[in-house]
Specification:
The protein is α/β, with parallel strands linked by helices. Helices cover 27% and strands 18% of the residues. A seven-stranded parallel sheet has the order 8-7-6-9-10-11-12, with helices on both faces. It has a five-stranded parallel sheet with strand order 2-1-3-4-5, covered by helices on one side. Helix 7 links the parallel strand 10 (214-218) and strand 11. Helix 1 packs across helix 8 (276-291) and helix 2 (91-109) crosses helix 4. It is elongated. 35% of the residues are buried. It binds NADPH dihydro-nicotinamide-adenine-dinucleotide phosphate and oxalic acid (OXD). Oxalic acid binds at residues 67-69, 273-274.
């Protein structure tokens, strides 16, 4: 089978090297290219497709995102409705995300940035800490993994999802229970996909339903967050701080107030990055299923948008 890789953000080299070891793969093209693409049947994409790509692929049978998110593909008018779209669900991705959030939670709970600043000025201040109730928005491949691990680490955990979940030791809520979920979330971790229903969900109204001095960790997408509402909530003391890994505009523009806000910590969209060697196993499994006319793994529900 012939494959086209379109990755404007990541180096395509490890993907090409890993995929080309499979007997199922005859040829790999990397976008942009003048090659004849008329025999390409699978398209692997990270970040929006250039316009005019799909019209060069008359035999296209399958598109896979090279990440967990598919927001870069949803609503792209050049993608025919009947082409299946899949995404990466991978144990490394889930483990890395869980580790990142635990790091953020621990830094917050133990006031680590204050201790580091105190060290510089030789200040000995035994700041106290307390148990935390953590609310995880989105209980899918990443949020579900996180919620279960946080429980094991001794946090009190509640979770929120579109359809009601049942996770050991985690208080689960669906959309009818959003307000109650928020009222328990002293730390709110966002791991929702971005869809028409979740865009701008982290806004002033939602913040007002959190306990006073709550902390926000946004590791999903920048478009979930109304940035001005966060700044207002931080300045008013409603929220005590935020750890942000994703932004409406990436790279974060120099003029963004987040760079210098004393209550905001930022990282450059690195909470969990797809590991090619691991994700390639899933791509090749799906390639095999495609060749054998079987249902693909981790297919996106276009109606739901994730
Ligand atoms: P999944 O699709 O597996 O899980 C999504 C979860 O969100 C599900 O529990 C789903 O509910 C829930 N959900 C969706 N819409 C709503 C809604 N309107 N109201 C309430 N709950 C809703 O996604 P993943 O866990 O794999 O990934 C989540 C997101 O994390 C990705 O979309 C991506 O944007 C982001 N991400 C960020 C990374 C980073 O480095 N910062 C790395 C990887 C991913 P239900 O279970 O009922 O379907
Ligand atoms: C993803 C991401 O969606 O890296 O995989 O953000």
């Amino acid at each position: 089978m012939e494959i086209l890789i379109s990755s404007s953000v990541w180096d395509p080299k490890p993907w090409v090297e890993g995929l080309s070891k499979s007997e199922l793969v005859d040829k790999i093209h990397v976008w942009p290219t003048d090659n004849d693409l008329s025999n390409v049947e699978a398209l692997f994409v990270w970040k929006p497709l250039d316009s005019g790509v799909i019209e060069r692929l008359p035999k296209l049978k399958w598109i896979s995102s090279l990440g967990a998110g598919v927001d870069h593909l949803m609503g792209d008018p050049q993608i025919p409705a009947d082409i299946p779209i899949t995404r990466i669900v991978d144990p490394f991705l889930a483990q890395d995300m869980t580790n990142y959030v635990i790091m953020g939670l621990m830094m917050y709970q133990r006031s680590i940035s204050t201790h580091l600043a105190n060290q510089k000025s030789k200040v000995w201040d035994r700041i106290g800490y307390k148990p935390l109730k953590v609310g995880v928005m989105g209980l899918g491949a990443l949020g579900g993994h996180l919620a279960e691990r946080l429980k094991i680490l001794g946090f009190e955990v509640c979770g929120y999802s579109r359809t009601l979940k049942s996770l050991d030791g985690v208080a689960c809520f669906d959309q009818s229970g959003l307000d109650e979920f928020l009222s328990h979330s002293e730390v709110l971790v966002n791991l929702l996909p971005i869809t028409n229903h979740t865009i701008d969900i982290l806004n002033a109204c939602l913040f007002s339903k959190l306990p006073d001095s709550a902390y926000l960790i946004n590791v999903a997408r920048g478009n979930h967050l109304v940035e001005k509402d966060l700044i207002d909530a931080l300045n008013a003391g409603k929220l005590s701080g935020a750890l942000l890994d994703v932004f409406r505009e990436e790279p974060l523009p120099e003029k963004s107030p987040f760079w210098e806000h004393p209550k905001v910590s930022i990282t450059p969209h690195v909470a969990s990055v797809t590991t090619p060697s691991s994700a390639i196993k899933l791509l090749l499994k799906n390639l095999d299923l495609l060749v054998n006319g079987k249902e693909l793994l981790h297919r996106v529900n276009i109606q739901n948008g994730y």
